[in-house]
Amino acid sequence: MKASLLGTIFGEIARAAGNVNPIIVEKKNKNLVKDLRSMEPLFPIFLGRRGYSYKKVKVDGVTTEVFKPKKNASENVVFVCHGGAYVSRMMFYYRLLNKRYSKASYGGTVIHFDYTCAPEATHPTMINQTLKVWEWMEKEGYKAENVIVVGDSAGGNLAMQLLLRLRDAKKTMPRGVVLFSPWIDMTASGDSYVYNYKYDPVFGIRGETPKPEDVTTLLQKSELYMWLGDTPRDDPYVSPVLAEYDSSFPPLLCFVGGIEMLRSESETLVKKFQDAGVEATLVVPDGMFHAFPIYELFPEAQHALKQTFAFMREKFAE
Fold it and tell me: Going by DSSP bridges, is the β-strand pair 252-255/176-180 parallel, antiparallel, or unpaired?
């Protein structure tokens, strides 16, 4: 089944405006950090929804946003880890899902936080800030077992780092996790880095298929990896696809595009969850590109969001 016309159009927009392949970046003489941050000023004003409150607080210097119903708010929380290659700060469009996240969590609170990105910071700054916000959330009276964590791209990496840290510290896990195209393999070793290279509009180059041994060289010189600092690429915290999993992890719903170079790492992660006896579902729409659900404006994205909200309602009802 092919992608819808609108989905295909959005993929081509991503190819024209958002391709971050290092060869393309070099040919166009792009400053990757500046380019990825160029959209941050767009639509900077968040218009609150009637009947909901919206406030910003500082948690150890990290701007944290809290959105919830003014009346009859539940104890549930949707904890959002934003994407952006660990380079781009939180964009306006993450807030556009707040009301629907709240409704899907039966009147829950939605928490966003704007962690410090590269090059100003490197690992483990981002996960340390995430843990600070998580601890602050619990001090505010919210319980981990009433939380669903959401992460896209680098935010998916951060969401998985959070779960691994909670597991290793023997702390309470959240109720569930939703990932949109998680970027969880810094070694770029999955097969899809080769077979989808010529299709992927965000990371690849149209019509070109590199040799498997060349993929690492082609990708790892990219500024996208500067967030690692001195951390080895195969560290299971920064490459959660390489970590070991057990039955303590929460149910997982994971989306990845059929033409993504990152496809195989989502497939591997979901299988590891399943092998550990954890409920895990992978959704791979044909012709879809990186983090497609967050863009909302075409059928595949809308269907993915409906599945996300259904997952949240089901888990929060248990």
Answer: parallel
